[in-house]
Records
---
Amino acid sequence: MDPLVYILDFIVLVGIFSIFSLSLNIEFGFAGLANFGKVAFVLIGAYTYTLLSNINVPFYLCLIAGAIASAIIGFFVSLPTLKLREDYLAIVVLAFGEILKIIVKSEGWIAGGVWGTPVYPAISIAGSSTRLDMAINIALVYVCLFLSFLLLQLLTNSPYGRVMRAIREDEVAAEALGKNRTRYRAQVFALGSAIAGLGGGLYAQYLQFIDPYMFAPMLTFTIWIMVLLGGPANNWGALLGTGLVQLFDRGANIAKDYVTLPIDPSNLQYIIYGVLIILVLLYRPQGLLKESQVKTKAVESIFNGRGFAKNRRDQ
Amino acid sequence: MVNWAQVFVNSGITGSLYLIGAVGLTLTYGLSKFPNFAHAEFITLGAFFGYIVAEPLGLGLPPSLVVAFLATGLVGLFCYRVIFQPLSKKGATIIHLMVASIALGLVLRYSIGSIWGWEPLYFKTSWPSFDVGPVRMTGLWIWLVFVAITLSIIMHLILVHTKIGKAIRATNSNPELALASGINIDRVILATWFIGAGLAAVAGIFRAANTQIWPMTGWDIILPIFAVAILGGIGNFYGSIVAAFIIGLAENLGVVALMALGLSTSYRIAIAFIILILTLIIRPEGLSMLFRRS
Amino acid sequence: MEEVLLKIEGISKHFGGVYAVNGINLDIGPGKIWGLVGPNGSGKSTLFNTVLGIHQPDEGNIYFNDRCITNLVPHQIYDLGLVYTFQVPRLFQALSVLDNMLVAGRGHKGDKLLFSLFFRKSWQRKEVELAEKAMETLKLLKLDHLALSPAGELSGGQRKLLELGKGLMASPTLLLLDEPAAGVNPNLGRSMFERIEDLCQKGLSFFIIEHRLELLFDFAHWVYVMDKGKIVLEGKPHEVAEDPSFFHVYLGDE
């Protein structure tokens, strides 16, 4: 494969997976929601995109529709468990992902069932080279990534973001201070699902093909590794984690061709992932980048001494 | 024409399998306060340990069950000691423990995959099948039900009459009080994880003997097993007995309904999911209200 | 006619047939310190929890500023200006002391999803107000130098002060305190009550459960005594202390 194309491919996938990581980060890192079924919402976004794009809906509407569909379904799936302990949400969403996969496999009329279906790329220029296609995808994906990142940074550095984290830290105390934890959780889960759905649509149109096997629980877990490694509750951390895991993935794939191991590399890769996560949890649960503090203008002015200056004047 | 007698018998068989599989999960879940997703891999491990004993060594079912129980029990114990206990001591939250259990599951599953490969294996023993009236049974199924009943009785006797059993019940319902009464909580937890993993292994052998042995053996049935644990009330052994048979019945009736509606029978698994959701909406503590034991 | 902030009328709450709170009637007025004492298990915490919406009462009604709050849930009650602080401080460990205070702000539109994204100027102004108020309060509690430290790093006594501080952020009219002096050294306990008295003079009313009777009785204007779910005695502190039945309540009758 053309080395440049290989690198461009890497860049696109890092971009798409960064969107997935950010979506999990807002749910788990900032709001403390254990979404073990993230792949379900990527699937919804991907399939929604595919179905609409195959009836010639413009790509941006397909992406938006995918995000909205994921948000709505995410909201309803999470609803029964929002008042309960966080492990219930994990079980329900995990199970939901499995059920969704079965539905998509069994109902052949939805995008070809087990055989999958091809997807048209969002933007295609007649007669373009693969490199140009890649460049277009990079532009598209990174614009979406930038917008998502901006949105999430604005949200987490606001009073809303502060309340979200408070609910994560101690939901009873937060309720006692007038915050309706169910409302916040429902909103965050819907938002996280929407962003995952957006990423799902981008994923589908990039790979130009989808089938149920692309949406295995392993995808959810890969995204978790990215968030845990990079540092939960830090959006830059999510990006960092994504980059590192993708790098490792690529490295492992290349090493396969050059190094002979007693264990089949694809099995080994996952064993390493598992061990890595356990080690991170044991020895560095806060990940590589620590939680980002809520930075609003008011807090920053106090940090810079303005608040103190006022008091000093009074003396 | 639906053979209702067969459906009913199948429900008992499915229920027996789920019961054996779920007891370990519900007990460790209740005690350590987090759902152990690696329980699926304990089931799978059991199937493979059983396979080693039954095939190359040519021994029959009972030795397989015993060896798998002990071996997997030790693995479960080891995993608790090396992963979950240190994490708990460091103040890990439920979510961290859950993620660790998924990571553990990953390690186990792919280790199994790398040793035995991902192609399905089969127990070579063939089980005689015979008809009792309108109902078809196999020797394997009779073993399954027998083991389920025996294990339930043994568990009950342990819980009610032995020191460790009473300690398990006490710790489950009131850990602080148990600690204050001088119960060695550590030992209770270790025993629970050992038994839990061991029972999972037994379920794994029966499941694999009925279908196939492959690294996903546990995952294939983990959803209904979770449903049993939650419907029965987390940590509640007696509740899980009732829940297992309710779900077994619901699934088999559901399959009848699916076929009648012309839908794929792979939706069978959705039945347990629906029961799970309904339990959480209507009564999250499940059937534990019916079996309040102190 | 004295103004009544909180009116508890015939409140009863039972758990499985045992009455934790049995027919409580009491009035809490503005600008004073009201005490609630009684032996362990007399139902004081249950009464507070019922007022706050954590439990639904089986009988009776509760009015706050003439508004019936019997069936409201905790976050709604907070919005009305009735605030509670926990006996064992419940702080947001990973957030800074300042953030802990800011979360407690009431009526901050920036809490809402769309508002926080699109009307930034508006909530930024309110943030500055809240931040200044927070710093003033922290200064009063002598915690201002720790404003940017994570709450998880505070000492036990500092946590109790922060817990009190959080409660003040909502500009409440009535503050329910659950054993504010529990587990702190006597000097700190006394200075906490002195702060409470200062705030009281600014118009805040306090309803306090306390076991440190020597402290409470020095500062309270009126004391209710509970035993076995009922109010058995009430009055000015020295009246209650001198009442012969008071000792029986604490020592139990034979």
---
Amino acid sequence: MKTLVAFIDRLIPSDELGPGAVASGAQIYIDRVLAGPNAGEKASFVQGLESVDAYAKRVHGAPLAELSAEKRDHVLNEMVDSPFFNRARRLTLEGMFSDPYYGGNKNFAGWDLIRYPGPRPAVAAGDQALNVEVKPYRVSAYGTNYGH
Amino acid sequence: MATSLKPVDVVVIGLGAAGGVAVLPLARAGLRVAGIEAGTWMDPHHDFHADEVYNNVRRLVSSSPKAQRECPTVRATPSQQARSAGVHPMMNAIGGTSIHYWAQSWRLKPWDFRTRSESIRRYGPNSIPAGSTLEDWPLTYDDLEPYYDIIEQEVGVSGKAGNIQGRIDPAGNVFEGPRQREYPMPPLRGAGFTDHMMDAARQLGWKPFRPPAAINSQPYRGRNPCVFHGYCSAGGCHVGAKNSTATTTIPDAIRTKNLTIFDKAQVTRIITDANGRTTGVNYIRDRKEYFQPAKIVLLAGYTYENSRLLLLSKSKAYPNGLSNNHGQVGRHYFGHWVSNVSALFPYDINVWYGLPAQGVTVDEWADDSFDHAGLGFIGGASLHAYTERHPIDAAAMNTYGRAPLFGSAWKKFVHENAGRVASTYLQTNTFPYETTFLDLDPEVRDPLGDPVCRITAGGVRENEQRALQHAQNKMEQWFRAAGAIEVTKPPNNGPGISTHAYGGTRMGDNPETNVVDHWGFSHESPNLGILGASVMGSSGARNPTLTLQALAWRTADHLVKNWKSLAG
């Protein structure tokens, strides 16, 4: 989990544009997915994280979680074309931009980042005009009383 | 030993888009119908959600665990080892794929029914793609028109006519064949983006229009209109505005009291007697095996399952599979050649909400709408720009080399651009070939021990590839006219497993090359009918559902009118 957090923290960092993947809880989504519907890929995913750590130790002398942000960025850059990077990035996007019901996208930080105004019960024609700012509707599709 | 049940008049295997409409004319005529469906009812309140993970990542409305355990294998050519196709597009549920589909409800063009002879007439015999097994359909557009009309009314289709009995209206599709009357509902409203694309197409001198959809644009027969909430694709409609057979023709058939539904029941074999007549079906429900006798069997599974079930149903009369004594089951199969040309705009296009059927379509570059002399292909593709974009998909956008794939620079890029990407759907006129077919996989089996369907997809076919490239270039031209700053045209080497799967039990007058006759009944086993896109011998440049539903109703109507001779 430490390596995963260190990894996705650089994929989508917290900055002046708002919370990143870790602050939004994407790691909670990934953890639940790998324990549940995607349990079949957990072993290969963990192996991928281990190989990231092995690379970090070999090149920078310490596991990913102990490296500076700059050095972690270097590690990510080196593996940007690898299947593991692609898969880890995909799961992080799912965590950050899915309905908060699944554990990520805390306080709708993901949807605010891309300016997605949220699922709403009905959409008026004016909400589909070109170039309008649609007022965000910050409600999960499962209401407010979800939680695991 | 299977428990034998009380005989019925008609067994329908599969209550999806095709079987789900066929039951209605049968039940209305007073026939006792057993509908056998591997899935069950879906509940709009519990099963349908405005949730991308649920609908699009986990595919919980468009795929069932049972279907996945029977997932076909796929290979391009016989020299390759077939591998699992990954996701089976068959949906086991009452309503089937019509629950989650885009609901685009097109009539094919008159040309689609006579592509072979019309192409030879206009461009010469060499225009027919080499290796294709294309035949003219055994019926014309005019033959099917009354049934298109019935489905549009019974299921409920919104749209704008472009040709009513020869009277052309440029507000509709001017390229369509003549219709007897207007759609029962006006088209779905446009969005800012689709209206903008419509203007751009008109500037190019094209004739864009709002396409037809089995989605209510206004209250229809007591059902709700669309609320445009943006979770239509691969999702069920929580307000019942998407006119699946589960909310339209199946409930209407149940009200006649002549339809009995056996849900969670998996048909394993179609049974025949020594004379080759079909006597009923075996199915498994709650791990018990039953035999349901019937005077008529209508096979209405998904395209891959129709061929598989016939090939599995071997008997003395049919040693190579039911209705396969001419070796045609599985032949003339093809997946639809389709493409998504996407574009980036320099301003917010606001397509988050809406639905894929809320769009604008151009038909100039489809079918035989334009002169193909010297182009090296026949057919073309319809171009369709639409709304509905989900947040994960939007964040996973192409960065067009303008930003890295992670970090603060990526965040800044998606903050600005995630709401500026448009998707399109291009559907190509696709034909069957000698190299494209279905059979039983020699190695991979389902949990019952039966082989799964194996798809030999055929690889690149030059005609379709050229037609699609031509259409992609037209789509780019359209996007550029609308102000797009980046356009992506993905390479296309042909479909593998497909949500638009055709053939395998093709309809035609010649029993040497076709499984069913022009009414949809087997050439070999006269009381077996087959419904679905598996009977279609070419795709048209548009979604198949309305056509396969019109054909299914026509087959059922023929059965009702000729009950005595067909039922024996």
